[in-house]
Amino acid sequence: MGNKSAASVFWGWYIVAAAFFVLAINYGSRYCFGVFVKPLAQEYGWSRSVISLGASLNMLIYSACAVVIGRMMDRVAPRWIVTGGAVIAALGFLLTAQVRTPWQFYLIYGLLLGVGSAGMGVVTVNSSVGKWFIRKRGTAIGLATMGVSFGTISLTPLAGLIVKHFDWRAGFIALGLISLLVGVSLSQLFLRKVRPEDHGFLPDGEVNPDLVVKISTPPAPVRIGFGTMIRDRRFRTLACSFGLAVMVLMSVFVHQVAFAIDQGIGEVTAAASLGVLGLAGFAGQFFFGWLSDRLRDPKYASFLGMSFMLAGLVALLQVASARGLFFYAVIFGFGYGALAPMMPILLADRFGRDTLGSIYGFVTLFLGIGGGIGPFLAGMIYDAFGSYAFVWRAEILVMIFVAGCILTLKRKDAGPC
Hints:
CATH architecture: Up-down Bundle
CATH superfamily: MFS general substrate transporter like domains
Shape: globular
Order of helices and strands: HHHHHHHHHHHHHHHHHH
Number of helices: 18
CATH class: Mainly Alpha
Distance between the termini: 46 Å
Largest sheet: none
CATH topology: Growth Hormone, Chain: A
Number of domains: 1
Structural class: mainly alpha
Oligomer: single chain
Mean pLDDT: 82
């Protein structure tokens, strides 16, 4: 077993690389949704709350499916889950290009694409990465989740250019074809294995079994029920904190471009700001994952990320030019980079790696509720007041609460509140 680990590159790093690009395509194609808000509103006369509801439904369906996928991840090779998700997501994007009514938009972008996105999501790929590492888990997951920002950096400007020079339908078609090609090919090539021990490897590529036992002795796999989890204060703290943070994040992703255009900033520049946000998140995802391996408790890395998001929202309130927009995007983006890696890192740290898929799926249900509420609520507030200022102020208060909650997170269950 030691010879296999030493003779070649540890297979876990191939899984990290594949996870990087799968996440890039999945989240990059969804997070550039803000590029399509104005064109849809102009062509069909739909309000922003109507359009935002599609993004909210997408997030809710995504999170509901993640619970099932999390259970599957503890038993099924991730390549089949990602392949299925890629095919369904591609079909969702291609059909979204043909919608004519809100109900068609909700059914296809909200429901169909939500299902496909779940198969290619963080529960699938980060749970897979988390099973292959112990000592280097933070760094590995941080590297993998950098794909989320890389996808935003790459696909948002691309979508913006396609929409500008062609139309919004061509943008959705391009996203569908990219999702199909990358998702299917990478999953079939690299995501064939579930746990290192099942294939003669040790976590982290270690060659000394005694060392691995000293590092971590994970419990035998057990089925964890939702009722058991909801009674655990650690679970409730994580679900609440990250659910609210994702609510803020998704409302920003969906409405940031429209907000910038309302401020008199050009369409391409406004779309590029999502790319800047993604570039900053790219750095943040690696940094916070790396930092978590070096702190006595990874919750402090998460707290720092939430604090950066809070500072970014304060800066967003002051945006009146492209320079201010990009400054906000750097601060907020660096902080948002903590969300994707820190969730599985904290879960594995508190609950172990062998049931990471199941627990991650449960938490994602709450992330989806938050992410689903965020864009729609922001759209309703905008429609009511004609300004995003009220949205950003409310979200500043939310992030103050979230940062405080993270600091209360215990390593052992403290019992019912």
